[in-house]
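subagent[fold] <- orchestrator: predict structure for attached chain, return tokens only, no commentary.
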Amino acid sequence: MKHTWKLFVLLILFSCESSKFDSEVILPKLFADGMVLQRDEAISVWGKGIPGENVRVSLAGAITSGTVEADSTWDLHLPELKAGGPFVLEVNQSKINDVYIGDVWVAGGQSNMEWRLKSQVIGAEKEFEAGGNPQIRFFKVPNSYSAEKLDDVVGGEWKVADSVNLKDFSAVAWFFAKRNHAEKNVPVGIIESNWGGTPVEGWTDAEILAGMEGSFLDQAKDVTENQESWIAKLNENEVNRQLRDSLVSKPDSIAAAQASSSSFDDSGWSKISLPNANPLQHIAWARKKFNLTTTNDVVLHLPYVDQMAYVYLNGKLLYYKDWGVMMPDIEIPSDMLVKGTNVLSVRAINTWNNQPRIGQEGEMYLMESGKKVSLEGTWSYSNSAVEPQLPKVEWFNWMPGMMYNAMIVPITNYSIKGVIWYQGESNAGRHAEYKELFSTMITNWREDWGLGDFPFLFVQLANFMERKEVQPESDWAFLREAQTQTLALPNTGMATIINIGEANDIHPRNKKDVGERLWLQARKVAYGEDILASGPQFDSLYSQGSELYVKFKSVGEGLELTDADGEEVKGFIVAEDTGDFQQVTAVISDKSTVKITLPEGVELGEVRYAWADNPEVNLVNNLGLPAEAFRAKFE
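subagent[fold] -> orchestrator:
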């Protein structure tokens, strides 16, 4: 009887205790099924609730509790936990399932980080066939911006890297995460917070920028000093954006059927010569008539449409082309065609600059049983006859602090391993201020996260644009130099990709090497491995008569050339202090040294390597990592 009474008292106490943790709580969007939390770091769990009510958090055997503050917020911390899962995270009566503990990285930057695996990335099909990895999860922070600091992201969900979701992941981040999981044998979470075409100041606190000197200063002051007017302006712009997106999301089915049918009278439409002219705007409709002698084995080749397009044949939808993806060759079902006159109609939209484009010279045709039927030339088009013009939507994401407020601030309480970053193209024209700007952003983020100098790994700009033998005033070369100088910050690493870019495309499709070169940096910077992670780096130089010797570090087993039969090191230019730059002959003289033959009469001046938008280079170390660009004085 005595033991029974004690048990009864314990049950009452337990019941009273448990009832203290039944109040409703609101969690940030990052806390959802499928999430990955950072191992070996204290885990913050935060949210909102009823002031004065109690909150209890439990995960993997760890428990903590606290009280909701007067402002309705609460923030609790679980102790460091080892990698593992799946677990259930319980917050009062809320349960979050399929939770893993591993390594979490933020993938930031502009379009080359945002670039999706499905967007013609080299090797993507192999990744799709492999089916992904259930212990790798991505959270895509939606593109958003704000004039004030937000306490949560506007949307997003954790997605498992399976055959369905994989195609929409950042390609660079995927290849990085894949190596992280394979080599460290831990779950991996990627928080994608990136946006194409954006400058570094948009990702930095405007209050900090308002105290600095630079081209961004007036805008930073405007954003911080006139916050209320900016909030009103952005709200109005958001209403327009939502209306625009609802208009472009899908065509009116009746209007589309009429405008794309073979019997539609487009005589009132204007004429355009594609692909040369570009008067297209808003939701542009363009029609082209063509003749066929057969309806079998007809293939449409129209890969270049910018950005999105609905493609119709004789009134029926043939294909939807999303942004960032080239349209594949399409085998047209024979029942969509007729012998004689057919009509191809394209509904094209470009929400980036409101100027859709259709086609590229030599890339607009049909294959009819092996015979080419050109689609170039005169088309009928209209920018407003079928659907209304789009409301004006301005872009303010590039303004100082705007993306930082909406896409970075809300996630800074979430423990991470570090950041991978790919950006710089949008700042190349202002390269002189990039080192300070970029360094400020990194320091800003580290202070916000409060995790110390966490690893910050970034990609140097790839080679791009027309190749010029001598280009000493290259903006891209100066920007690369600013990126290199940013390595002065502790726990930073740079992946050099100056040998895998594409002259005609700012988005090189080789993302695998980018991700894996970032991973090399992670092994060295984040995990403390004593490995070779960079290509050859400038160390020192000296001259002897008419010869200049440049010594490199990070050479591994020794300097090499990528040319199978080559002997000359490409990419060096020199100039006297008052003279013009010119190419010079250079060869590898020993394991870590390149010997340059100076032009006659040149005794003091400057040497530069890989100093151009798109330099021709061939110097690597034994890992095949390219030598980094540099410039140095000699005498």
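orchestrator: received. Logging for downstream: Confidence is low (pLDDT under 50) at residues 1-19. Residues 227-249 form the longest helix (23 residues).
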